[in-house]
Write a structure and sequence with these properties.
Layout lengths: L9 E5 L7 E3 L6 E3 L7 E11 L6 E10 L8 E5 L3 H6 L1 H12 L2 E8 L4 H6 L4 E8 L7 H10 L1 H12 L5 E4 L8 H51 L3 E2 L5 E2 L1 H8 L1
Antiparallel strand pairs: 1-4, 2-3, 4-5, 6-8, 6-9, 7-8, 10-11
Helix pairs in contact: 2-5
């Protein structure tokens, strides 16, 4: 807008706030993802620009955003030794410091704590900030972001100390929650179920074999007892009540 003053001051917005996956910087018009984990494809956003003059003029256009699922691999988690409610209030300043020291466009993907929300906001001095970086057109690989964060660690902490009015320590969280994909979780669960099933089958098989051996041993002992009983009683009654001699018993056994 070539106008000056309020007539040239443009504010950007998403019309009807049609999606929760994206947001827009009202001053610059930059669109960034808020929550697209596990999603891929093309999204169409209607964007509005409005000047701030007395008779406000409005223009709209449709922006297509293509989400590449592999882009989540380039998210980096920065750990701050500050309460989450404090970081949330200062998140714009945190973003500005990171952009200044890393010399990239930085987008805040998420701010969270590992503790329960109520406890974290009052007691826990650890906050995780998920970020991703872009150069002129492309997303910066996570390893490059981590390398530069380490190089600029001292400068970043110095600037953040001015914002929070207290000493600030930063670190890089190597294991992000998003690194565990649904496919990996499913594989782990199936593997555990298979292992449990196999273990149960082997235990059943061992139990069955043991039971069979015990039965065979008992049967053998019983047979031996019957033979010994016949030897200890050389004369026994047959079914007709007559006596059998030991000789006949031995012949039968043979």
């Amino acid at each position: 807008d070539p106008d000056s003053g309020d007539n040239g001051l443009l504010l950007y917005s998403l019309v009807n706030d049609q999606t929760n996956e994206f947001d827009i910087d009202e001053k610059t018009g930059q669109i960034f993802a808020v929550s697209v984990a596990g999603k891929a494809g093309t999204f169409y956003l209607e964007v509005q620009a409005e000047d701030q003059g007395t008779r406000r003029l409005i223009a709209r256009t449709t922006v297509s955003v293509t989400v590449d699922p592999s882009s989540t691999n380039n998210i980096v988690v920065v750990v701050l030794n500050q309460k989450i409610n404090v970081v949330e209030r200062k998140i714009t300043e945190v973003k500005r410091v990171l952009q200044d020291k890393l010399s990239w466009n930085i987008y805040i993907v998420d701010v969270y704590s590992n503790e329960s929300e109520r406890k974290a906001r009052s007691n826990t001095d650890v906050t995780y900030v998920k970020i991703t970086a872009f150069d002129d057109a492309n997303q910066v690989p996570a390893e490059d972001v981590k390398r530069k964060l380490r190089e600029q660690k001292s400068n970043i902490e110095t600037e953040l100390e001015k914002i929070f009015s207290t000493p600030v320590a930063t670190a890089i969280e190597e294991a992000s929650a998003d690194s565990v994909t649904p496919e990996l979780i499913a594989t782990i669960v199936l593997g555990v179920l298979l292992a449990v099933t196999l273990t149960a089958f082997l235990l059943y098989l061992l139990f069955t074999i043991k039971q069979k051996r015990n039965y065979e041993a008992q049967h053998l002992i019983k047979k031996q007892a019957e033979i010994m009983e016949g030897i200890d009683n050389p004369c026994t009654n047959d079914k007709n009540g007559s006596l059998k001699s030991l000789e006949k018993l031995e012949h039968t056994n043979n």
